[in-house]
Amino acid sequence: MDLVGACLAFVSVAERGSFTLGASAAGVPQPVASRRVAALEAHLGERLFDRGARRAVLTPFGRDVLPAAQHLVRLAEALEQRARQARRRPLPLAVPDWCPARDLAHLAARAQADGLTLELRRAGPAERAALARTGEVRAAITAVPPGGGDWVVPLGVAAAVPPAEHTTYLDTLRVGRSGGAARRVLLQPEDDVPHVRDPLLRLRDALGLRPGQVVVADSLVGAVADVLGSADLLLCSPAQADDLGLHWRPLGEAEPARGYAVEAVRADDAERVRALGRDLARCLGASA
């Protein structure tokens, strides 16, 4: 038996002196309220109302148990209110600091539509991992090797002007072949992680490029400014290049990629974040 539902019907009828009015207040049809009261009477072993009266008149037993039933109904209402408040409690989520504000806004709006309030905190890869590890945020989108997480973002290089070729080869950046100033490939701070950075540095050395031709920039803004004012290249995703107004091409000698995973102390927080996977994919520039 639904004890809370039965007590709600009992209290609503008792306080209004009518099964019709009580059922309406409880939000159920009158026959349902009558069945619930009858089930409660059977459960308690005594009649709650005098069935011979024209109105819903409490029996002595009904008057005795009414305060306890009212208390139970108030507790149930308080529980539902507390649950609603808990669902609205913001969930702090650490996200990459380069994610476009437009996409983050759509992510937050989608979460609100699902009854989840996100408190987005932008941070670099090392800080996001630290925030999740120390519990300063309830969940974080952390950088992981491709294939070991929830999203994969392919990377290539982007230039200020459209390259003539459909694929860019780092080998063509060697100073001896270009005959001009040494062009650079700038890595964003987001890609200053071993699984992205180290293979590209090894490829740089294997191709005979100068050490300064593949480097990690101090900031994304500074890197983009350098690319816009030169022939340098920015390591980024196709979606990020489009957002920055740059022209993207894949690399010929390598297929670098970002991997992202949801890290959370509580499994239910991780699942609530993963439920927003399509919108998070848009923020990260990954395929849905």
From TrEMBL:
Q: Which InterPro entries match?
A: LysR_HTH_N (IPR000847), WH-like_DNA-bd_sf (IPR036388), WH_DNA-bd_sf (IPR036390)
Recorded GO terms, molecular function? DNA binding; DNA-binding transcription factor activity
Keywords (A to Z) from UniProt: DNA-binding, Transcription, Transcription regulation
- List, for all copies, the residue spans of the domain called HTH lysR-type: 1-59
Organism of origin: Actinosynnema mirum (strain ATCC 29888 / DSM 43827 / JCM 3225 / NBRC 14064 / NCIMB 13271 / NRRL B-12336 / IMRU 3971 / 101)
PANTHER family, alphabetized: HTH-TYPE TRANSCRIPTIONAL REGULATOR CYNR, TRANSCRIPTIONAL DUAL REGULATOR HCAR-RELATED
Per the UniProt entry, the signal peptide is none
Q: What is this protein called?
A: Transcriptional regulator, LysR family
Which protein family is named in the record? Belongs to the LysR transcriptional regulatory family.
User: How is this protein annotated for GO cellular component?
Assistant: protein-DNA complex
One Pfam family recorded for the sequence: HTH_1
